[in-house]
Amino acid sequence: MTQTHSIAILIADDDAEDRMLLKEALEENHLKNEVHFVENGEELMDFLHNRGKYTDKRKYPLPGLILLDLNMPKKDGREALKEIKQDADLKHLPVVVLTTSKAEEDILKTYDLGVSSFITKPVTFASLVEMTKTLTDYWFDLVQLPNSPK
């Protein structure tokens, strides 16, 4: 593993059970990355811009990877994705949609908005563990990510 120690992951998902399962799946893979969770698109944007309760840049660093649920309250994943990709300071961040949706319309729309990958959430925990392993291997060991601002 080359970069894993320094790259934070930000997961935006309003479902508490999904957040817990994702956390456990990442732990099962012995991932050393810092993982942060937000519950909706507004919190996601506050985190990325270090606003509100996320003002401490050391505690809430710019993530190297965002896992984004589409269907969230306040500001959904589609709106947040559009905002991220239109922001000169954020558009380089890889965003992976991780959702229950299999709708062709969602797949096309999110790729049009600039999503890096679209993944349908696995239904079993074992599948989730395998998916998170593949995902983190790809993003942290295989791909060259842009340097995050310090």
Describe, in plain words, how this protein is organized in 3D.
The chain is of the alpha/beta class. It has one domain (9-142): Rossmann fold. Helix content is 39%, strand content 14%. It has helices at residues 16-28, 41-48, 77-86, 104-113, 125-142, and strands spanning 9-12, 35-38, 65-68, 95-99, 117-120. Strands 2-1-3-4-5 form a five-stranded parallel beta sheet. Helix 1 packs across helix 5 (125-142) and helix 2 (41-48) packs parallel to helix 3. It is globular and about 35 Å long.
Provide the CATH topology.
Answer: Rossmann fold
- Total strand count, please? 5
Q: Give a short account of the largest sheet.
A: 5 strands, parallel
- The proportion of strand residues reads 5-15%
The largest sheet has its strands arranged as 2-1-3-4-5
Shape: globular
Question: What percent of residues adopt helix (DSSP H or I)?
Answer: 25-40%
SS-based class:
alpha/beta
Helix segment tally:
5
Q: Which CATH architecture?
A: 3-Layer(aba) Sandwich
> Which consecutive residue ranges, at least 5 long each, have pLDDT under 50?
1-5
Secondary-structure element pattern, one letter each? EHEHEHEHEH
Domains, number: 1
Mean of pLDDT:
88
Radius of gyration: 14 Å
**Spatial gap, N to C terminus:** 21 Å
> For this structure, what is the CATH class?
Alpha Beta
CATH H-level superfamily: Response regulator
